[in-house]
Write a structure and sequence with these properties.
The structure is a homodimer.
Chain A lengths: L3 H18 L6 H8 L3 H13 L4 E3 L5 E3 L9 H9 L2 H4 L17 H17 L2 H9 L10
Antiparallel strand pairs in A: 1-2
Helix pairs in contact in A: 1-2, 1-3, 1-4, 1-7, 2-3
Bound molecules: FE2/S2 (inorganic) cluster (FES) (2 copies).
The structure holds a DNA duplex.
DNA sequence: ATAATAAAAGACAAAAACATCTTTAATTAA
DNA sequence: TTAATTAAAGATGTTTTTGTCTTTTATTAT
């Protein structure tokens, strides 16, 4: 399960990607409102993503957040790694200090498969993949009403 | 990803099950040592499991923890639920306030499958399943040396 | 009975996650 | 150049999770 910070990050970025298609650069107030996340916490998370170069921003009137049009599609795993690291995809299912094929815990064989599938999903899914679903009306980013 | 408390709970119970086969009832000091978990925290977790009737205990000299021989095999999901609830298996993959097939988030279709596989694993896997692997030498519960 | 042993219980403490508040810096429209 | 706007930054606060310490209660061997 992702941390709330990772969840907010992904929802924010999808929202930004959707808005960017219309040439708009939303601010953190708008983003937080639309994805139902705490305003200042969202701002902090976006700050982190900007520092890590996954996202761009401009200050001042008319400013906001946006993706570099040059940049490659952004896989979710990169966002997750930027916010909370890779532990979700490497940690032993019952908490042994190291996950290992050679010296497995009793659930390793089954758990590692599922964990790898999740990692695969997070690697293959990009912000754009998700943004397209929003644009096509096939999915939502909030539960407003 | 499970909470540490759930991880310690599962490792503890597997250790207890293994010991019980030899007619032994380990105490929390021994358990904590053998599964590499903090002693008092382990004691608290075992207390919770005893209160919830997933485990039995006797105080005093010769006391310790053990399973009711009458009881049915204990699926991991029951332990997880006792310690941290079901949220791991019900929560939206990107944190929407409700996960829903009818009104999905953009990752729902792929994520829900993996989450269900994990739930299925936690439902079908019992403490005894895991204990057998330890007894057969096919898996380990710690990384001591 | 007494001493030893072991879990239960309650209070407390530290760390991490989650969140807010206030001030500063950058940008732009007027 | 000034006022308005917006992100960045830093300090602080809250909640949850994780972990420890101390005292109490139950059990048993002697
Ligand atoms: S060793 Fe436990 S999941 Fe790999
Ligand atoms: S709605 Fe997001 S995972 Fe189901």
């Amino acid at each position: 399960m992702l941390s709330k910070a990772s969840e907010y990050a992904i929802r924010s970025l999808v929202y930004i990607a959707v808005k960017n298609r219309d040439g708009l650069r939303p601010g953190y107030r708008e983003i937080a409102r639309e994805i139902e996340a705490p305003e200042q916490f969202t701002a902090k998370i976006l700050q982190t993503l900007v520092r890590q170069k996954l996202l761009m921003s401009v200050r001042g009137r008319g400013g906001g957040f946006f993706f570099d049009p040059q940049s490659k599609p952004l896989p979710l795993i990169e966002i997750i790694n930027a916010i909370e690291g890779y532990k979700l995809f490497t940690r032993c299912g019952i908490g042994l200090s190291k996950c290992s094929d050679e010296n497995p815990c009793p659930i390793h064989n089954q758990y590692a498969i599922i964990r790898n599938q999740y990692q695969d999903l997070a690697t293959k899914t990009t912000i754009n993949t998700l943004a397209k679903k929003i644009i096509d009306g096939d999915a939502v980013l909030n539960r407003l009403i």
